[in-house]
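Lesson 9: reading folded outputs for more than one chain in a single document. The general rule is that every protein is listed as its sequence immediately followed by its structure tokens, and records are never interleaved. Here is the first one.
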Amino acid sequence: MQLKGALFALLAFGIFATHDVVIKYLGGTYNAIQIIFFSVLFSFPMLTLVMIRDARGDSLRPVHPWWTGARTVSGALGAACAFYAFSVLPLTQVYPILFAMPLLVTLLAIPMLGERVGLHRAAAIVVGLAGVLVVLRPGSADLTLGHAAALAGAVFSALSSIIMRKIGRAERTVVLQLYPLLVNFVVMGAALPFVYVPVNIVDLGASAVVALLALIAMTCLVTAYRLAPAVIVAPMQYSQIIWASLFGAIFFDESLDRMTMLGTGIIIASGLYIVLREDRRKGSSQQPVLRTRTRPATPSTPRIASFLHKSNDD
């Protein structure tokens, strides 16, 4: 069962990497605002199916409106930043920065959730963030708005994840998905006239593929977490750097330089150390940080949904 879970996780993150390739392809022609708008537009029918299958007859009003609002804003900003970063940066530069998100989750959990971080995990956080600096190489490499967007995407996604850990049991999954979707639709729709470029039928289909791939990958990831524990499934996210190197070389003539490889290795090692150490803390109420990883797939679909908390912890 655990092997099947690991395989489903590998499949999920492989599909997510393909999803990111399509975003980068679209980013060569269209503004990130336009890409997000159409991906959100095509996500609505999928969310409708989720709502139809939801047996709970509760209201769509959030139980915690302020926290839900904060998560909606942070999720929307995180998605927008990630979409922009993928559209303008090499895949192999975006992923290492986003991989720092679990470290940021652990850091933000101190003031927001009142969790304690011991010496070992604190050292892992420092080492992991140092790995981000190795990837960015401030002072020796040109830092662009895309790098800032990737880093901001990691921060906002970490904040969104922390809020989900705080309210995920009380709020319906459909509520946590619907509100970011609506906000992105309204905000990006309002900004669309300023950046709009006519879309051909192939690229319109590619926008639909972005939403579809996110749904398929999310389904695989849910299956993975039902078959195997987080300590086995979560580290599979790092396989995306392999796909990024492969897809980047094939489709975009990109390469993975030594410093990026070194920084990526440092970030991955620190993230793995944290999740493995937390998994051994049997008496702790804290969930492994990577279980709540929410790097945006589409602006409406977190890469680990709130209902996974229930399936793993109940």
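And here is the second record, again sequence then tokens.
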Amino acid sequence: MTNRIAYKTPTESFNARTVRQGECLLWAGAVKETGYGAMWDGERVVRPHRWIYEQANGPIPEGADIDHVCGNRVCCEISHLRVTTRKQNMENLTHVNANSSTGVRGVHKNTKGGKPWRVRVKHNYVEYNGGYYDSLEEAETAAIELRNKLFTHNDADRKAA
């Protein structure tokens, strides 16, 4: 039989399951397959970053996302969380698309001949061609420039530019 600690309040539970790591406050409790934390708020299972945001700022508008400015899905640091639309949240993704074999977001191998690297960026369900490049580094720079032109909430790209 496993010993379970029963916390009296969601705040007590939250505080016991977060750890400071650099500038982030990381959720160290249960994490779902999506990469987001999960906690009981006394009524239902919720995402800890959304729960703490509401504790500090009040209700999240209907349909709004909470974006992790730092890019870490288990971060619960209030200063790293902001209300965004789904579009804005998707713009700030810092991870590489799971379908990318290059390891660089927006850069794909060109299989049709010519220059070996192709830049493609999706924005509002439209795919934009960013050109073809001789080196992966050139293609990465072009992908960042294209995202900076199209996106408003791509913080990691803006720091890299």
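What the second record shows: The two ends are 54 Å apart (CA to CA).
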